[in-house]
Amino acid sequence: MRIKTILFSAAFSLMFLSAFSQHEETVLGTRNLGFSGIWGGTKHQMTRFGNTNSYVYGWHFGLEFGKALTLGIGAYDLHDNLLWDNQSGQSFDMRWRVVSLGYGFQKFRSVHPVINLDAGRGTVKFANENEDRIFVIQPSAGVEINLLRWFHLAFEGGYRFVTDSNISLTDNQLSGAFGQATLRFGFSWGRYRNH
Questions:
Q1: More exposed terminus of the chain, fewer Cβ within 10 Å: N or C?
Q2: Is residue 19 in a domain?
Q3: 108-165 pLDDT, tens digit each
Q4: What is the CATH number of the domain that holds 179?
């Protein structure tokens, strides 16, 4: 019982102090990194596997902090019935789930730059070989357009780094550049501290 009283008192004291404390000032200006929004939507990626242009469909969901930083989850799925290099008997499929980290610069502007990093595990299937587990890292950068307060559209370019492939296709063959359109639906609340 005494431990509960001490913990309750400590928690109450911290809440009381934080309510009356001022925002921390830094060299780069003040920044409130509180929870500020919820966003989700779809990603549409054009990329190349072997000699074949391909479409990859993705989804994402994230929590926004400080009206700039987004932390979330997502997934990508190769939506084509792809034959590697258009060779019969060489069917190919790849899908991966990711943890996402994104940052928008001056998001109060109608057009602003964004950077993102997706990383996670996935699977690849090639021809008659057993399905293999892979690891994917995708950095990207681009611009985001605030079409409506609840709907943003981003255009990004990036590179997909694939590792841990143990099939006859190498990591290098599975890796490659991509262009991506991201549709974001959601809402941010609160005021921007620095315009």
A1: N
A2: no
A3: 899 999 999 999 999 999 888 899 999 999 999 999 999 999 999 999 999 999 999 9
A4: 2.40.160.20
The token pair at 189 is: 């609340």
Per-residue pLDDT tens over the stretch 56-77: 999 999 999 999 999 999 999 9
183 is written with which tokens?
């549709």
What total of structural domains would you count in the chain?
A: 1
Residue 27 domain flag: no
Look up the pTM and report it: 0.77
Q: Which residue has the tokens 């792809």?
A: 82
**Residue 157 belongs to domain spanning:** 35-188
Query: Which is nearest to 74 in space by CA: 166, 145, 180?
Result: 180
- The CA angle 30-33-36, to the nearest 5 degrees, is 120
What's the rounded Cα separation, in Å, for the pair 69 and 169?
Answer: 36
**Token pair recorded at residue 78:** 């190769």
